[in-house]
Write a structure and sequence with these properties.
The protein is α+β, with helices and mostly antiparallel strands. It folds into 3 domains: about 5-50 and about 140-230, 2-Layer Sandwich (Gyrase A, domain 2); about 55-140, Alpha-Beta Plaits (2-Layer Sandwich), CATH 3.30.70.1400; about 275-345, Aminomethyltransferase beta-barrel domains (Elongation Factor Tu (Ef-tu), domain 3). Helix content is about 15%, strand content about 35%. The chain contains 7 helices and 20 strands. It has helices at about 10-15, 35-45, 65-70, 120-130, 155-160, 205-215, 225-230; strands at about 5, 20-25, 25-30, 45-50, 55-60, 85-90, 95-105, 110-115, 135-140, 145-150, 175-180, 180-185, 195-200, 220, 275-280, 290-295, 300-310, 315-320, 330-335, 340-345. It has a 6-stranded mixed beta sheet, sandwiched between helices. The protein has a 6-stranded antiparallel β-barrel with strand order 15-18-17-16-19-20. Helix 2 (about 35-45) packs across helix 7 (about 225-230). The protein starts with a strand and ends in a 16-residue tail after the last strand.
């Protein structure tokens, strides 16, 4: 793993028994105590995830709002400072270059959070679309990201970090300072549970990590549990469920593409060849990416994500299938050495998440 990039918490992970694996060019912890245990702990208490491989860009200057509204898929005129929004970066054909979250820091100042494997490509693509006069910086190597997720996350955050977190609503964020360094706290996440994503200077990550772990309900978790948690919610992973060959409409996000702005790729959204659907498979044998999906004798598509769903006692999957076959109620998945019967289910598969729960008393 010597050629892999490392987060500021790498040495902590190794010293504390994490199993490290390559992920998107990084050495990342996939598990500590076990994926199923970490999954359950996140659903019932709170887990801490090192997500410092993600990328952060800063954009500011006159006209930043209108210009960025033509680069990403949302009209940012409707996004208030202190709020953030999930969206997409598209190629000219409407294919997904990346999914991202845009934070409006001030009237003409934004932070864009992108996937770790796409940092360089995204930065170059966006820079090529910007006029002169704007300040566009790649802050990824200076910014650590720690995710605190689970029903007990509010109590842990409130105990560890001073602030009025009770009034922080879903997809809202606050900028504060602790121990004389800047900290951005966002009420967002990738697990379906009440949670927070924290952005801070790279060299302060271990201090905050250990401070949060001092809270009684908080334990570290790896990317394995993060993947099963997001899949139970039907949330897509870039490089598997999202890619340049499929549009956000095909991935099931057409309803959020309401911007009247002429953003890059908008003209390509009308062509719908395939649709991303949810599949439920009884038992404990899961489908895997690249398994083929059949409707009768007709090859309908391919699985993009699949796993056991620990909260549900079955397996679930996401798959792209032909648009003309996507409304069928059941499919067969040709997995290794067997065929799996799957029923189409509208995600999220898990519906008891606390992400939108009111916090405080």
């Amino acid at each position: 793993m010597s050629s892999l990039l490392t987060t500021p918490l790498h040495d902590w992970h190794v010293a504390n028994g994490a199993r490290m694996v390559p992920f998107a060019g990084w050495s990342m912890p996939v598990q500590y105590r076990g994926i199923l245990e970490e999954h359950k702990h996140t659903r019932t208490r709170a887990s801490l995830f090192d997500i410092s491989h993600m990328g952060e860009f800063l954009l500011e200057g006159p006209g930043a709002t209108s210009i960025l509204s033509r680069v990403v898929t949302h009209n940012l005129q409707t996004l208030a400072p202190g709020k953030c929004r999930y969206g997409f970066l598209l190629n000219e054909r409407g294919g997904v270059l990346d999914d991202l979250i845009v934070y409006r820091l001030a009237e003409e100042k934004y932070m864009l959070v992108v996937n770790g494997a796409r940092i360089d490509a995204d930065f170059s693509w966006i820079a090529g679309l910007l006029p002169s006069g704007l300040r566009f910086l790649n802050q990824s190597d200076k910014t650590a990201k720690i995710d605190l997720q689970g029903p007990a996350s509010f109590a842990a955050l409130a105990a560890a970090i001073p602030g009025d977190w009770e009034s922080l609503g879903y997809f809202g964020f606050r900028e504060t300072r602790i121990e004389d360094f800047p900290l951005l706290v966002s009420r967002t996440g990738y697990t379906g549970e009440l949670g927070y994503e924290l952005y801070l200077p790279w060299d302060k990550a271990e201090w905050l990590w250990e401070r949060l772990l001092n809270e009684p309900d908080v334990l570290p978790a790896g990317l394995g549990a993060r993947d099963t948690l997001r899949l139970e919610m039907g949330l897509p992973l870039y490089g598997q469920d999202l890619d340049e060959e499929h549009t956000p409409v095909e991935a099931g996000y057409g309803a959020m593409l309401t911007s009247s702005e002429p953003f890059v790729g908008k003209a390509g959204l009308d062509a719908v060849r395939e649709r991303l659907i949810g599949l439920r498979i009884e038992g404990r044998r899961s489908a895997r990416p690249h398994d083929e999906v059949y409707l009768g004798d007709t090859r309908a598509g391919v699985v993009t994500s699949g796993s056991i769903a620990p909260s549900l006692g079955c397996c679930v999957a996401l798959a792209y299938v032909r648009a003309d076959l996507a409304d069928a109620s059941s499919f067969a998945i040709k997995a290794a050495r067997t065929s799996l019967e799957a029923v189409r289910v509208e995600p999220p598969f898990y519906t008891e998440g606390t992400a939108r729960k009111k916090t405080g008393t």
